[in-house]
Write a structure and sequence with these properties.
56% of the residues lie in helices and 0% in strands. The protein is mainly alpha-helical and 235 residues long. The protein has one domain. Helix 4 packs across helix 5, helix 5 packs across helix 8 and helix 6 crosses helix 8. The longest helix is centred in the middle third of the chain and has 21 residues. It is elongated and about 85 Å long.
């Protein structure tokens, strides 16, 4: 099983499922929902504090240019583009990781320390920093820390660092539109009751009366938006 497939199963099966956003509606449905929600609840989804918080974080920069270059290479190694979908770089994962460093400050020291550790290891082995290494040299280094069960005691710190990078990359990718599309996640979709099958009703000598058919099983009413009372109280 390749790394992408492993990550897909991991995220679809459990720990990442709660992070996925709904994407099963048509573009028209999404636009109409946004219009309805926007009119009823201006600013819905973000409090003023949250919007100001995000704006401030987006205006700041944590990684240096060299560090961000390393983040991009690592993200691309973890989830590269293939014939089925774009990779972590296409999905904007490095920018997501940059944001997470500021949104969750405890990530900062351990991530920066991990990048320094990786550069030191490459300097010892190849006489140059990670970004200057060849693709073969980079993969030789990554293979020493990407497989925890096979890593030596000397690589323990690197294993923890790479595990964190893999988690951040997978979370960033599979919560992006590209990643959600790749998983085929359709979000919450309404279920429809088509009534008891005709053959079952006939077997028992029963049939639906017109009132039930009109109120409960009218197919042309399935997508009708409910008309709410103007005096409805919203808690």
């Amino acid at each position: 099983m390749d790394r992408r497939e492993h990550l897909k199963l991991l995220l679809a099966g459990g720990i990442g499922a709660g992070l996925f956003f709904t994407t099963g509606c048509s573009d028209e449905d999404i636009r109409e929902s946004a219009r309805i929600v926007g009119e009823a609840f201006p600013g819905y989804g973000r409090t003023g504090y949250e919007a100001d918080h995000d704006k401030r974080l987006f205006s700041e920069r944590f990684f240096t240019d060299d560090e961000f270059g390393m983040i991009k290479i690592l993200a691309d190694i973890i989830i590269p583009a293939d014939q089925e979908s774009g990779g972590a770089l296409d999905a904007g994962v490095p920018d997501f990781i940059e944001f997470m460093m500021k949104d969750h400050p405890p990530f900062q020291l351990v991530t920066r320390g991990g990048l320094m550790w990786l550069n030191n290891q490459c300097n010892r082995r190849y006489g140059k920093v990670f970004t200057m290494c060849s693709e073969t040299e980079r993969m030789e280094m990554i293979d020493l820390i990407a497989w925890p069960d096979q890593a030596t005691a000397e690589m323990r710190y690197g294993v923890r660092f790479f595990n964190r990078m893999r988690d951040l990359t997978a979370t960033g990718y599979f919560t992006s539109q590209m990643g959600v599309d790749y998983l085929g996640y359709e979000g919450n979709r309404p279920g429809f009751w088509d009534g008891v099958p005709e053959e079952v009703l006939e077997k028992h000598g029963l049939k639906y009366d017109e009132k039930t058919m009109v109120e409960c099983i009218r197919e042309d009413d399935r997508y009708r938006i409910a008309d709410w009372d103007d005096q409805m109280n919203i808690l």
